[in-house]
Design brief:
- This protein has 10 helices and 7 strands.
- It is of the alpha/beta class.
- It folds into 2 domains: about 130 residues, 3-Layer(aba) Sandwich (Rossmann fold), CATH 3.40.50; about 90 residues, no CATH class.
- Helix 1 crosses helix 2, helix 1 crosses helix 5 and helix 4 packs across helix 5.
- The chain is globular, with a radius of gyration of 18 Å.
- The protein starts with 5 loop residues before the first strand and ends in a 5-residue tail after the last helix.
- Keywords: Hydrolase.
- This is HAD family hydrolase.
- GO terms for molecular function: hydrolase activity.
- InterPro entries: HAD-like_sf, HAD-SF_hydro_IA, HAD_sf.
- Pfam families: Hydrolase.
Length: about 240
């Protein structure tokens, strides 16, 4: 068995899960003091989810042609990320146009994210075994405050975020940057993610890859523990 020295993790759908669309919408309505009938909240939340407006949630059921090019590279800059997701949100009628930006802003807050039940346990154990840990994410904003708020940050040695480098998974360059930040060898690194295409890109460099399912946190209580079974302490 390979004696791994390093584990790289994806963010959304791997270590943490974004809140459900209805919870997301309710939070923004509450924060902005915007009234909406109960049946309208449920209907609007479903429409936003189908539109793909919640970052970290389901992809758009139908991607508008005018957003197709930007969608493919949305994680390369903060501006693209916001423009794409607020563009998707604007396909759904809301009582105040300002709510589209408010919804986007909400998803960047720690309250919008829930760690998977075993995330802290697994990160803590990896640190105890002497392995280095990195987070490699396709994202348009700084997720470090989310990790700090949920107590995960002390167990992460480096963050490699697409918007900070202008490249995104599965491009090998983003994984190479992550490996360099941790002084890691690809052949002794395990990449953990939920997206077989994006996260599987690490295999091009020689990293092993371990996949988990992108499920609600309550339905995936212990999948990350499989990472512990896949690694051994460095020799």
């Amino acid at each position: 068995m390979t004696a791994y020295t390093t584990v790289l993790f994806d963010f959304s759908g791997t270590l943490l899960r974004v809140e459900p669309a209805e919870t997301w919408l309710r939070a923004v309505l509450r924060e902005t003091g915007t009234p909406m009938a109960e049946d309208e909240i449920a209907r609007t939340a479903r429409a936003l989810e189908e539109a793909g407006a919640l970052p970290g949630g389901p992809a758009p059921r139908e991607l508008p042609a005018e957003l197709a090019d930007a969608w493919r590279i949305r994680d390369r800059t903060p501006e693209l990320h916001r423009d794409v997701y607020t563009g998707l949100s604007r396909r759904v009628a809301l009582p105040d146009p300002a709510l589209h930006d408010a919804l986007y802003d909400r998803h960047m807050t720690p309250a919008a994210w829930q760690p998977y039940p075993d995330a802290l346990e697994v990160l803590r154990e990896l640190r105890a075994r002497g392995l280095r840990v990195g987070v490699v994410s396709n994202i348009g904003w700084d997720l470090r405050p989310v990790f700090r708020a949920h107590g995960l940050d002390p167990y992460v040695d480096a963050y490699t975020l697409s918007f900070e480098h202008g490249v995104q998974k599965p491009e090998p360059e983003l994984f190479r940057i992550a490996l360099d930040a941790l002084d890691a060898e690809a052949g002794r690194t395990l990449m953990v993610g939920d997206d077989r295409r994006a996260d599987g890109g690490a295999a091009v460099l020689g990293c092993a890859v371990h996949f988990v399912d992108h499920l609600p946190a309550g339905l995936r209580p212990d999948a990350l523990r499989g990472v512990l079974a896949a690694v051994t302490a460095p020799a």
